[in-house]
Design a protein that fits this description.
The complex is a heterodimer of chains A (125) and B (383). Chain A folds into two domains: 7-51, no CATH class; 55-122, OB fold (Dihydrolipoamide Acetyltransferase, E2P). Helices cover 8% and strands 41% of the residues of chain A. Chain A is built from one helix and eight strands, in the order αββββββββ. Chain A has one helix spanning 7-16; strands at residues 21-25, 31-32, 47-51, 55-64, 74-81, 86-89, 104-112, 115-122. The N and C termini of chain A lie far apart (34 Å). Chain B is an alpha/beta fold and 383 residues long. Chain B has one domain (3-120, 206-382): Peroxisomal Thiolase, Chain A, domain 1, CATH 3.40.47. Helix content of chain B is 32%, strand content 19%. In chain B, the strands form two sheets. Chain B has a nine-stranded mixed sheet with strand order 3-2-4-7-1-8-11-10-9, sandwiched between helices. In chain B, strands 5-6 form a two-stranded antiparallel ribbon. Chain B is globular, with a radius of gyration of 19 Å. The chains are: A mainly beta (125), B alpha/beta (383). At the A-B interface, strand 4, strand 5 and strand 6 of A face helix 5 and strand 5 of B.
């Protein structure tokens, strides 16, 4: 992945290609999110991009209530990916009321309003 | 703020304006009315003010706009923006500036007309880039996810959250300045419209107009004013994140850190505090802050607030004006925690004045549980 551009662009370029990429610190080995130019944990400056496994778990969740005529209720959640980073996301394929803390999910690249976004769906049995 | 600043500054005037609805008044009008009320309370004039501490949601340089509106040229200004906690944070910077001789009369002020201007929370904050896409309702969704996690980890119930709102309303019912004074039951809160699970409209703070102001001077001249001085015994700030997705533990706020340092500086413990004024933007806030400030153990906040413990007549008076849930919430409530704490110490609280208040805690919250600032205020007997 190109190193001569900002980390936000690298992340978004990945999404545009259907890929969730995460930075890992070469010093403390922790993954980080959101993309940035240093490791917030050990302050290391050397980071390498890796594709995320897609495994995750719902850390906490809420249903945003919205009138049916404006599109109805929808989910907003925090997903903790297997790499140990947490990000805001939305669980699709089940109703918002069925999204519970601890739910195992698979993160994938979908779209919100035409923009590539990390979304989640329940892990298939 | 170090121990050497304990008791070195004092609040000698407080004021407010525009509580509830102030139709036709701009946010700066309400700020100025509040400032004038606080200066009248202190027996001072605008021309005495040489230190200005202000932030507003209206534009990018509110402290300059405020100075211009008031027609003053302060020699020290601070417009640090940490959300609703900003005004509690200014207690520290005003104390520093006063103590260093950078100013002699510090005015902390704020105003908002969000209710009559827009009917909803006005915020200059843009949604962070990695969150905005998911269309969380700012800031409710963030607090809802903190509440959900607290319920999951500690078995906190919606009924316990509701009891926070019921207690706030019970205080407000005795406060003629409070905006919402109608009866409110646990069932009313639970049955109100759900806005972001598990929070209903009644778990959320009000949307009102309103402004507040505080006048501070060095302690050595604090007795020269009409009202009894209220001393800043301890003040400390802590911040843990800006975006809710970056909050490390959704059940623990940086109030644990700010509170610890504020208590250490003041040389008192939670058991010494007579009244507690917390920024209750949502019912979960009160529970989190009571835990993190040491009034009860982590995870026990739900049980602690149940059955009227923090309501009038309960063991611990919390948000004695009715709080942001029932008294006033113009967008950044923090300044009102300080004003109510000061009035309880002076003995001229507008609602239920508690007996013999010597020590009060004021706690501000900013962002989405992001910035926490704790102040401990005391009567002359505590310095």
């Amino acid at each position: 992945m190109p190193e001569n551009q900002g980390p936000d662009k690298t992340f978004r370029d990945g999404l545009a290609e259907g890929q969730i990429n995460l930075q890992q610190c070469n010093d403390c080995k922790k993954f980080i999110f959101f993309p940035r130019v240093l490791c917030p944990h050990c302050k290391g400056r050397s980071l390498t991009w890796h594709p995320a496994s897609g495994g995750g778990i719902v850390h906490t969740t809420t249903t945003v209530r919205r009138k049916p005529e404006r599109g109805g209720d929808y989910n907003v959640c925090m997903v903790e990916l297997a790499e140990g980073v947490r990000m805001m996301s939305r669980v699709d394929e089940i109703s918002p009321a069925e999204v519970t803390i601890g739910l195992p999910v698979t993160a994938f690249v979908g779209e919100i309003d035409g923009v590539p976004a990390v979304l989640c769906k329940p892990v298939e049995d | 703020m170090g121990d050497q600043l304990r008791g070195k500054s004092a609040i000698v005037g407080v004021g407010h304006a525009g509580f509830g609805e102030a139709p036709g008044f701009s946010a700066y009008d309400i700020m100025a009315q509040s400032a004038l009320a606080a200066l009248d309370d202190a027996g001072l004039k605008l021309s005495d003010v040489d230190g200005l501490f202000c932030t507003m949601m209206e534009d990018a340089m509110p402290v300059l706009m405020a100075a211009e509106y008031l027609g003053i040229q302060p020699r020290y200004v601070d417009g640090t923006m940490t959300g609703g906690s900003s005004f509690v944070n200014y207690l520290t910077s005003a104390t520093l500036a006063l103590q260093a001789g950078l100013c002699d009369v510090a005015l902390i002020c704020y105003g908002s007309n969000q209710r009559t201007a827009s009917g909803r929370l006005v915020t200059a904050s843009k949604l962070p880039p990695y969150e905005g896409l998911y269309n969380p309702r700012y800031p409710i969704s963030a607090y809802a996810m903190a509440a959900a996690r607290h319920m999951y980890e500690y078995g906190t119930t919606r009924e316990q959250l509701a009891d926070v709102a019921v207690a706030a309303r019970a205080w407000a019912q005795h406060n003629p300045e409070a905006f919402e004074r109608g009866a409110l039951t646990r069932e009313d809160v639970l049955g109100a419209r759900m806005v972001g699970d598990p929070l209903t409209t009644r778990d959320c703070c009000l949307v009102t107009d309103g402004g507040g102001a505080i006048v501070m001077v060095r302690a050595d001249r604090a007795r020269d004013f009409p009202k009894a001085p209220v001393y800043v015994l301890g003040a400390a700030a802590a911040s843990s994140h800006r975006q809710i997705s970056q909050m490390q533990d959704f059940t623990v706020t940086a109030a644990r850190d700010s509170g610890k340092r504020a208590f250490a500086m003041a040389g008192v413990t939670p058991g010494d505090i007579d009244v507690v004024e917390l920024y209750d933007a949502f019912t979960i806030n009160t529970i989190l802050f009571l835990e993190d400030l040491g009034f009860c153990a982590k995870g026990e906040g739900g049980g602690f607030v149940a059955d009227g413990r923090i309501a009038p007549g309960g063991a611990l008076p919390v948000n004695t004006n009715g709080g942001g849930l029932s008294c006033v919430h113009p967008g950044m409530y923090g300044i009102f925690t300080v004003i109510e704490a000061a009035r309880q110490i002076r003995g001229d609280a507008p609602g239920l004045q508690q007996d013999n208040v010597e020590l009060a805690l004021a706690h501000g919250n900013g962002g989405v549980l992001s910035s926490q600032v704790t102040a401990i205020l005391g009567a002359a007997s505590t310095v």
